[in-house]
Amino acid sequence: MSVKYIPVQWNRNKWLYDAVMLAGVIVFLWLFLFISPELLSHEFPLNPQIHNARAFGACAFVMLTVILCIGPLARIDRRFLPLLYNRRHFGVMTLFVAITHASYIMNWYFAFSSSDRYEALLFANTSYGQLAGFPFEFFGIFSLLCLAILATTSHDFWMKFLTPPVWKHIHSLIYFAYVSVVAHVTLGVLQDQQNHTFTVIFTGGALAVAGLHAYAAIYERRHGDRLGVDVDGWIDVCSVAEMRDGFAKIKILANGERVAVFRQAGTLSAISNACAHQNGPLGEGRVLDCLVTCPWHGFQYDVTNGRSPAPFTEMVPTYNIRLSGAVVQVHRDANPPGTFVEPVKIEAAA
Amino acid sequence: MSDKNTPFFVGYLAVPGGLRRFLMVASVLVIAIFAVSGALIGSTQDAPPASGFRFDYGRQTVTGVIELTPYPLLRVTEGNDLIKPGKTLMLTSAGKSGVDMRAMGLDGKLATVSGVILQRGTIDMMQLRGGGRGLKAAEGIAPVMETEQLGRWKVAGEICDGKCLNGAMRPGRGLAHKACANLCLLGDIPPVFVSTQPIDGSDFMVITGPDGTRLPTMSYDYVGQFITLEGDLERRGDILVLRMDDTTLELTDQ
Questions:
Q1: Is A55 on the interface with B (CB under 8 A)?
Q2: What is the pLDDT of residue A247?
Q3: Given this model, what pLDDT does residue A4 score?
Q4: Which of residues 240-269 of A touch B (CB under 8 A)?
Q5: Which residues of chain A are under the pLDDT cut of 50?
Q6: Angle, vertex CA A150, rays to CA A147 and CA A153, nearest 5
């Protein structure tokens, strides 16, 4: 949360996060670049440019794999949420590693000819009609463009400018980028290898990403929120006895939106489940002194009016709420963001 | 989603005590994943084949007869300690450029060449120095060089560019290298066929189009891939030249 945009907002946890991720990248590159040549002991060593290109390319793949594993892990177990917190920084770091990989390729394989290297990238291999020998560089270019778009629009300014739903759709490009990387590697380096260690690591990484996403989807289907039944515009959420002080129950409306109903200090309030920042799940946050804190990035909202505390200006829609006997009900129509709704007192209604 | 008692993390506040241990383990695990994958991938790369730029031989200067196949070869007539008469050298310029323009007009004539050697197995290439210092007409009458016809062959293997294969790139063949090889071939560097089985004692041969023409455009789609093709083979000094029949080229599973 911020009242103005600055290039990077730091705090202790972000420093620690970036330090851990950077340490991983440095260890990877150090072992690959400086230790592995001694272990390889090739009589005719690889060209340094090729060795470097492989190191940065493999590192970018591992980084992307880790990034894409964090999301489903955080959905399966909330203890992984801190890994989600500063993931954008890691994504930007991945772009720089991927650009370094591409630079070595461009300045080695596509250099030294009378043609412009960027034009050569497009015309040197045009076997688009065949699978084996397909210009796998195309997939690498696409992935790099996706990463560049994601990195340049990663700042909150762009989220505000584009609106969170549009921003989230754009940032779903990460999945296309990953699939494209898989195609890039599968049609490229995997075709030529005799030693299959990389193949095993690569396949394991790609399967981990796919498997974790599938498992998280199944997990959410089994343990997730149910669609509410609409009677005259009012939807049953749950029995008031099921609600725990300081927490929310989440219900899906017929239009697909989620509403988070909070119990705090003997009252009930309902706001949109989607955080105005990145559409994070507010209903999975905690309420303290009427303020719910988003579990993704710590944005806060007053659950009675959906407004962030001053001087912040973020707002989410609120919902009308009532008790029907012991059943908590919300109205399907959202109020404009920031609309105050009188909290329902549980004792008075009981 | 998980236990409601999971400590709640807020990015700008201190990490809750119950999460610290978990995050410490997760951090070590993330770094370990990077370390293990970096070490494993880095230390299990295939060894490039024996080949390379041989700067250690120093600059070589020899004289011989230029033959355009249409890719320029030098049939050595006056050699030195390293390059003996009878040797045939493929010729290239620096970078991804051949010597077609420089050799034009010297076909069948004596020339002196100077440059460094690229070497792989039984096949050699010379990267010429720039301008007249690298390639110039020599005095004297060029002897008639013999070409031994070896008949029609069916061969299996891979088309590469002669420079990367000879060690300008290590590795310098295979699908991952296809675009680079095509760029070399478009730059007039002599193409080479790498055979899976030795043919008349050699695994490598210069490959041309039908009847000694340039490599057909269609063959660029198959560079770096395992193929079979038929063609007429001939020996020029210690090098083989395969004139491919492009109608017989087939992509093959290894």
A1: yes
A2: 92
A3: 75
A4: 244, 247
A5: 348-350
A6: 145
Cβ A46–B48 below 8 Å, yes or no?
A: yes
pLDDT of residue A119: 97
Contact between residue B150 and residue B31 where contact means Cβ atoms under 8 Å apart: no
Residue with tokens 């790099």: A144
- Check B176 against A86: CB less than 8 A apart: no
* Burial call B15-54: b when 16+ CB within 10 Å, e when fewer: beeebeebbeebbeebbebbbebbbbbbbbbebbbebbbb
**pLDDT attached to residue B2:** 41
Which among B31, B171, B180 has CB closest to A27?
B31
Contact B76, B83 (CB under 8 A): yes
Q: Is A76 on the interface with B (CB under 8 A)?
A: yes
Write down the pLDDT at residue A232.
Answer: 87
Coil, helix or strand for A306? coil
Task: From chain A, pick out residues whose CB is under 8 angstroms from the CB of B221.
Answer: 126-127, 129-130, 133
Q: pLDDT at position A223, please? A: 84
What count of other Cβ atoms lies within 10 Å of the Cβ of residue A112? 19
Q: Return the residue matching tokens 């010597």.
A: B99
- Name the helix (H) or strand (E) containing B184: helix B178-186
Q: What distance in Å separates residue B142's CA from the closest CA in chain A?
A: 33
Q: Tell me, what's the pLDDT at A25? A: 98
Dihedral-angle region of residue A327 (phi above 0 means left; psi in -120 to 50 means alpha; beta otherwise): beta
What pLDDT sits at residue A162? Answer: 93
pLDDT for A2 equals 65
* Other C-beta atoms lying within 10 Å of the C-beta of residue B140: 11
Does the beta carbon of A85 lie under 8 angstroms from any beta carbon of chain B? yes
What is the per-residue burial (b if ≥16 Cβ within 10 Å, else e) of B201-225? ebbbbbbbbeeeeebeeebbbbbbb
CB-CB neighbours of B171 under 10 Å: 21
Could you tell me if A66 lies within 8 Å of chain B, comparing CB atoms?
yes
Contact predicate A330/A230, CB 8 Å? no
- Report, as ranges of residue numbers, the positions in chain B whose pLDDT lies below 50: 1-3
